[in-house]
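Hi everyone, sorry if this is the wrong subforum. Our group has a chain we'd like a structural model of before ordering constructs, and none of us has done structure prediction before. Sequence below.
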Amino acid sequence: MNVMFSQALSYLRHEKGISQRQAAQDLGVSQALLSHYENGIREPGLTFVVKACDYYQVSADYLLGRTNDRSCPAGTTESSQPDPAVMLRTADTLSRVCADLCREEPELGLLFRRLATQLGKDLGKGPGR
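Answer:
Right subforum, don't worry. Here is the predicted structure as tokens:
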């Protein structure tokens, strides 16, 4: 499994605003195993990938890093327009992740923080403003 899977899995959990312990419980795995998946130490089986897709309401292609399109699995509904509240939460999550990144890789972290700040400003303006 590539690094994109691990990053996407961790990002989606943070975006949802839940602890690793809670996500592991909801997904039916131990917290240690979920940590290994999120850190790229272990590779999950297909059953886990399907559960994670259903849990986070994303396609397997998105979770596996094959596309940026989050299209929900068959049988679920999703608005064709992004929800501004979700987008703002995403920007906030990205900002927190960037703060962590700044401590580890200051130059890269600063770049991502600027992007997240701009995204938050753009979302605050809304369409047609």
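For your construct planning: Confidence is low (pLDDT under 50) at residues 75-80. The helical segments are 3-16, 20-27, 31-38, 46-56, 60-63, 84-104, 106-125.
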